[in-house]
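Q: My collaborator sent me two sequences in one message, no labels, and asked for predicted structures for both. Can we handle them in order? The first one she listed is below.
A: Yes, handling them in the order given. First sequence, followed by its structure tokens:
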Amino acid sequence: MSDDDEQTAKMRKILEANKDKDFVKRVIDWDDGVEQPSIDLGKGMRGTHMMATAEADGVHYAYATIQRDSEGELQRLDPREAFQIAMAQGEVIGFDTAEEADEFARNYKKVWEPEE
């Protein structure tokens, strides 16, 4: 198994373990070909997640800075505000190290890449 295949398998495992979270459902559904709501990021780009990381009480978290508002519409938030809301709503994935959280936040989209 190549390094890319191993990383993709690792991302899938983390996503599967957290499939109850709204932002993870959007990742999984996208991978299954279900069109997801998105927001305009400008310059012809659209966004559904925009992942970030933060630390609290010794735990390192990955979370989405694009979140649903009270009416269910996606909105892009400042990372600090997004983290506070994500923590309050349980919309975070915890990791032991900053490196693990960063790896997930940078590479979760690998599950969308076609398998060779």
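Q: And the one she listed second?
A: Here it is, processed independently of the first:
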Amino acid sequence: MRIFIPARNAPLGASAAAVSDSELMLDAGSANPANSRAGLHSAHHGAVRHRIDIGRRRFVYMLPVGVFAGMVGAFAVSLGRDPSQIPSALIGKPVPEFDLPPVQGRALGLSRGDLRGEVSLVNVFASWCVACREEHPLFMKLRQSGGVPIHGLNYKDRPNDAAEWLDSLGDPYTRTGADMDGRVAIDWGVYGVPETFVVDQHGIIAHKHIGPVTKQALEETVLPLIARLRG
């Protein structure tokens, strides 16, 4: 069914035939309320799907940005963290089982059993380690003072190089262990060289210092801890 409506500009009283070219035709079906509601419902769902698609695209675009921002934030935090304060899973646990021969030219090797009976330090060092040279004078002074036994764990070093290094710079160690393949250091949870451990009289690891030991670290952390462990 069609309804003929005279055009707005058609002359008044004009017949339907006279104004046929000016008529506006409306499909009566389009005026049906049910059809109108159906059309609005479909349009609404189409708009919702469009908004969801836009949201998904924004999420996909923003995800790499968010990941990158998180990485930058984590890197910034790591820059502000003191690397010597990185926690160790071995704190409060017995030293791992090991038994190493001495560094070339030394008589006493190093094993787990040697770290019981008294509080001691275990210093991981190597002749190729530049930072080891920074802390070495402190260990020489500590050895001369007799404050605490210091044992050396020589990490992935050539026998001649390790011996020459100790001969030229001085040997602060009571015992040394030549860990030429680095396996013992892995068991100790060593991140790099140098590292220094405080071991109590029961063979329990009480503290770990990553990097060269400084005078401040020695006086404010290491020596006070040794005094407390001795009771």
